[in-house]
Every structure is written in structure tokens, then in C-alpha cells.
Design a protein that fits this description.
43% helix, binds nicotinamide-adenine-dinucleotide, 338 residues, Rossmann fold, binds 2'deoxy-thymidine-5'-diphospho-alpha-D-glucose
Length: 338
């Protein structure tokens, strides 16, 4: 049994991770989340109160973070911080980079100083976007040794946070691991993101919106598989090391929208091309050999189409959750010609 402090635990991946931990371990969890627009209280409803406590607060709040990390230190059971909290949407970072810099960089700094003071282990959640993008025809994929080359304010802020984590490992001996995962999909993902946006557009009688040519490639992984990888890193990861997490799920955006349209019984060519994202990264692709060989981790959702079908069913069954968020998001996209 461990005690975990999960920052950003009311967001898409954090909430799925909390469910995964409760199902697969005996660990106890404290969630720290400031409940931005991206968070969901509903995603944490019905969890056992004896094992989960939710603290509403900001990861940039030094006193609060110090107190919560301090609770993990010195007990009989080991404690660890799993740091998901971040501003996560590229399009938002193009509109206003400011919270990306403060939450993603200063928030990580605040967590690092607290784990340093209290001698608590940290797992830092990063993204494959820190490596920039690959050419469409490039046969290569990102590895743990790929140089950092972030393109957007979001990915640059995540890269900055990763550099701080590695510096705290080397300079202060902080016991930290990092993981860089590819694009997640699954339940509780905000309707601003690509896959839920298209599914909910169709459920609402609207149309699918594809940025630019649609040739951009993303490497999709079901969020449960990201959670199992993070648990495996907590169990077996070596301090100071980085693990890449991906499920060999490369698809062009065009392929994804056609798959969604087919699954929802529509003509696969019935979509709109809309204005492209500024600086739009071409292709992400993860080589997760190291996580698989050194940690023995394997993804469960090997069929993207099966995971996507389940996700379509989930959004169809949870319209009361996403519909209140939908109109404002679509109005903001429409104002940008997207
Ligand atoms: P999300 O936007 O759905 O959730 C982020 C959560 O962090 C929200 O609950 C939000 O309220 C919270 N948060 C934001 N600012 C905060 C602050 N200052 N203090 C406390 N809480 C704050 O994001 P997500 O998609 O679940 O991503 C979670 C993490 O995983 C991020 O670090 C992201 O960079 C990383 N990641 C995401 C993906 C993906 O495909 N979504 C892939 C790889 C890595
Ligand atoms: O690679 C990991 C990253 O994946 C995470 O670090 C980010 O937090 C997460 O948001 C995601 O970033 P992307 O920018 O790749 O995801 P997004 O869902 O915003 O877009 C996926 C692709 O779909 C991208 O090429 C842009 C395109 N797109 C997006 C939207 C919202 C469209 O074509 N139409 C759309 O309406």
C-alpha cells in the first residue's frame, strides 16, 4: 500500500488514473486540483471516501503543496506525488500562453521544491510533444534520447518543466521519474479535444471539423493504458529515468475522422476542412520499447478502432456531462474559423 498525491486528479487523465489505482491497488489517494474549466467533479463521484480525499487548490500554492507533500513523508507506507496538473490544450496556449507558463513551469517548480524538502518521490507526467514533430515520411519515432524541440507554448512549457525535474534529480538528488506519453483518448476527455469534439458534434447534429489537410499524424493510446504504464513506473521505474509511453496507434487525423464517421453510421467523407492550427505539428510517434522491455508494460487496447468504438458509446451515454460545456467551446472555435 502507498499513499499518493495526484495533482490534476480531476482532469481527463488524472481522474482515469485515480480510478485505475483504486481498482488495481490498495493505495490511498489525495487529489489536488484547482478545478479549472478542464476538471470534472463528476469524474470523481462515488469513489470510496476511506481511500480518496479531494483537496481543491492550486499547484502553484507553495504552502498548500508543502503541507500535502509533508503528509506523505515519514509514514509507515511509502508516499509519492504523481504530477498531472497542467494546462493541456495547444489551441488555448496559442490564445493565451500565460497560465501555461505559470501552471506548467511554476507549478512543477513548486512540487519539486516540496518533494525536495520532504524527501518524497515524484513521478512527473510529460508529453511526447516536447520532442517537436517528425516529418510525415520519416520512418523514425521518438525515443528517450530524442532531443527536445518543442513548437507550441504548451509543449515549450512542458519541456521547461521536464528540464526542471531533471535538474532537481541531478543537483539535489530528488527521487523522480518522468514519462512522455502520446495522445490519449477515452472517457472524461474534455470536448475541446479532437476526438470528443468530433463525436459530440455528430451526436449534437453538427459536423466534423478537420484542421488543414488532415494529414497530420498522432499516435493514439487509450487512457487506461497510460494509467497502467504510470503504475508500472511507480512500481518498477528507476529513479532519474524517463519512460516513453505509446501503443503503436499512429493514425492521420483524416483516418480518425473517417473511423468516427463510419462508427456513427455516417458517410466517411462528410466532414468540413477548417482553418489550420498555427504552427501545427506534423507527426508524433512513440517508440515505447524501453517501457515494454525494462518495465514489462504492455498496452491492453491494441485495437484503436475497438477503443474508439467504446469511446463513442461512452459519449453517447454521458451527454448530460458534456453538453453543458459544448456550446461555449464551439462558439470559441467558430470565432477562429474552426
Ligand atoms: P486536462 O486539461 O484534462 O486536466 C488537467 C487538470 O489539471 C484539470 O483537472 C485542471 O483543473 C488541473 N489544473 C490545471 N491547472 C492547475 C493548477 N494551477 N493547480 C491545480 N490543478 C490544476 O489534461 P489531461 O489531458 O488530463 O492531461 C494531464 C497531464 O497529462 C498533463 O500534464 C498533460 O501535459 C499530460 N499529457 C496529456 C496527454 C493527452 O493526450 N491529453 C498526453 C500526454 C501527456
Ligand atoms: O501528444 C500528446 C498531446 O496530445 C498532449 O500533450 C496534449 O495535452 C493533448 O491535448 C494532445 O495534443 P494535440 O494537439 O495533439 O491534441 P488535440 O486533441 O488538440 O488535436 C489532435 C489533432 O487533431 C491535432 O493534429 C489537431 C487536430 N484537430 C484538433 C481539433 C480540436 C482537428 O483536426 N480538428 C479539431 O477540431
Amino acid at each position: 500500500m502507498r499513499r499518493l498525491l495526484v495533482t490534476g486528479g480531476a482532469g481527463f487523465i488524472g481522474a482515469n488514473f485515480v480510478h485505475h489505482v483504486l481498482e488495481h491497488t490498495e493505495d490511498e489517494v489525495v487529489v489536488l486540483d484547482s478545478f479549472t474549466y478542464a476538471a470534472s467533479r463528476r469524474a470523481l463521484e462515488g469513489l470510496p471516501a476511506g481511500r480518496v480525499r479531494v483537496e481543491e487548490g492550486d499547484v502553484r500554492d507553495e504552502g498548500l503543496v508543502d503541507g500535502l507533500v509533508g503528509e506523505l513523508a515519514g509514514g509507515d507506507e511509502p508516499g509519492a506525488v504523481v504530477h498531472f496538473a497542467a494546462e493541456s490544450h495547444n489551441d488555448n496556449s496559442l490564445r493565451d500562453p500565460s497560465p501555461f507558463v505559470t501552471t506548467n513551469i511554476m507549478g512543477t517548480f513548486t512540487v519539486l521544491e516540496a518533494v525536495r524538502r520532504h524527501g518524497v518521490r515524484l513521478h512527473h507526467i510529460s508529453t511526447d510533444e516536447v520532442y517537436g514533430d517528425l516529418e510525415l515520411e520519416d520512418p523514425g519515432r521518438f525515443t528517450e534520447d530524442t532531443a527536445y524541440r518543442p513548437s507550441s507554448p504548451y509543449s515549450a512549457s512542458k519541456a521547461g518543466a521536464d528540464h526542471l525535474v531533471r535538474a532537481w534529480v541531478r543537483s539535489f538528488g530528488v527521487e523522480a521519474t518522468l514519462s512522455n506519453c502520446s495522445n490519449n483518448y477515452g472517457p472524461w476527455q474534455h470536448v475541446e479535444k479532437f476526438i470528443p469534439r468530433q463525436i459530440t458534434n455528430l451526436l449534437d447534429g453538427g459536423r466534423v471539423k478537420l484542421y488543414g489537410s488532415g494529414n497530420n499524424v498522432r499516435d493514439w493510446i487509450h487512457v487506461d493504458d497510460h494509467s497502467s504504464a504510470v503504475l508500472r513506473i511507480l512500481d518498477r521505474g528507476a529513479a532519474g529515468e524517463t519512460y516513453l509511453v505509446g501503443a503503436d496507434g499512429e493514425r492521420s487525423n483524416l483516418e480518425v475522422v473517417r473511423a468516427i464517421l463510419r462508427l456513427m453510421g455516417r458517410d466517411p467523407d462528410d466532414f468540413d476542412h477548417v482553418a489550420d492550427r498555427a504552427g501545427h505539428d506534423l507527426r508524433y510517434a512513440i517508440d515505447s520499447t524501453r517501457s515494454r522491455t525494462e518495465l514489462g508494460w504492455v498496452p491492453r487496447f491494441t485495437s484503436f478502432e475497438e477503443g474508439l468504438a467504446r469511446t463513442v458509446e461512452w459519449y453517447a451515454a454521458h451527454a448530460d456531462w458534456w453538453r453543458p460545456k459544448k456550446a461555449a467551446i464551439e462558439a470559441a472555435y467558430a470565432a477562429k474559423g474552426q
